[in-house]
Amino acid sequence: KGLLALSLPAAAVLGYLCWPDAKPSADAPAPARSVAQTPAFKTAPPPQESEIALAIEQKSIVAEFTGNGRERFKVVLMNKGTDSLKVSVPIGQIFESDEASVVVIRPGTIEVAPGKTRELSLRTAALRASNRLADAQYHLAYLSMPKIEPLLVRIQQDPDLTIAAVQTAILALTDNLPLSSVAKFTPASALLPSRFDTDAFRADTQDIVTALSLLRDIGVRESRVALTIDPQLRIESMIDPTSRPLAMRYYRITSELEWEFWRSELLAGEPATRHYALYGIARFYPDVALEMLPRWAREPRTNPVYRLSAVQALADTQRPEALPILLALQNELGLGTALGKAAKGAADYLDYQLAQNAAARSAVAFRTSRDVEALASAH
Questions:
Q1: Which residues pair with 64 in a beta bridge?
Q2: pLDDT per residue over 203-262, tens digit each?
Q3: Residue 296 near residue 278 (C-beta atoms within 8 A)
């Protein structure tokens, strides 16, 4: 009865919807697909992980190694399998060529797809100062060096260590090189000349002190390290502003004891390096130096080496007040003398440095002013 009450158009629509062959309108939404009907997307399996020695032994990869015998090393890997492979090269892995051996000091990992070839760059260090330093082919070495293992553990704890510091520490353990073999500064006396040409392994003073600190950290006794024999390192590292904080920690020189250190070096230090203390006093105690050094330069009974050092050290104060003092010394001592020429050279150097410093300050002030103006205009 209800159906008969429908109007003709409504009945026709209802009949169409109920008809077995009826098709939905193109504008009608498609019926929802059940979960069972949704196609599954296959996810790639995670890559297999393997250290390089095991991957080579299992013939999962083919590898080529090239290095320069010191810090640069390249690994070329080809994945022979059907699955992706993540290959790691751990710290401490040793590689050898016919004339050199190196150890990995910064580990590396790389993922290689099936049938593909990829390159991995590593940081290494020479295990011997006698290494041939030239690009060459290397092979994996299935050996270890127990004497450097504690150092490698310590290296992993500080990723900011420089390559030069790590290299110096390693050679101190393997070859026990003397200071004259690794220092960039000119030795006052070569107590222990090196058996090799070690110019490629020379390091900045701060790297040498860092290397000694690493060796102390792992319990190596200083009496067994040749680098510590030459007393020049201590005063060189204290003079150098970049290594001074490290040196004060390593030699246990507190701020309260620093002046006593310079005084002791000047009065009772090694004869070959006592005059170095004048430069340290000039750099770190300029007020004292401006009073003290002119008297040393003018005193004829003072050793000529100390008089010359006093003149040159005045420029290291980096103080404008030192410039007229040097010009006065130049006139008093005469340009025909070594001291007079040294005073002129020191005055010229100081004048140049002061001009450079003033220009740098002006540039900083200009940039700051410009940034302030830009910020003000933006608001």
A1: 76
A2: 999 999 999 999 999 999 999 999 999 999 999 999 999 999 999 999 999 999 999 999
A3: yes
DSSP 3-state assignment of 131? coil
Question: Distance between CA atoms of 226 and 173, rounded to whole angstroms?
Answer: 10
pLDDT digit string, tens, across residues 96-112: 999 999 999 999 999 99
Q: Specify the residue for token string 């006794």.
A: 221
Contacts 24+ apart (CB under 8 A), 324-333: 325/290, 325/294, 326/350, 329/294, 329/297, 329/298, 332/298, 333/297
Which tokens sit at 182? 């690794």
Residue 344: how many CB atoms within 10 A of its CB? 18
Its pTM stands at 0.80
Sheet holding 85-89, edge to edge: 48-51, 85-89, 108-112
State both tokens at 211: 């290397």
Question: Both tokens of residue 25?
Answer: 């309108």
Please, what is the average pLDDT of the chain?
Answer: 87
At 5 the pLDDT is 41
Q: Which residue has the tokens 């009865």?
A: 1
Answer yes or no: are the C-beta atoms of 63 and 77 closer than 8 Å.
yes
123 beta partners = 72, 106
Rounded CA gap, 33 and 341, in Å?
A: 96
> CA 4, 10, 11, 14: dihedral to nearest 10 degrees?
-130
- pLDDT of residue 374 exceeding 90, the answer is no
d(CA 229, CA 233): 9
**pLDDT higher than 90, residue 366:** no
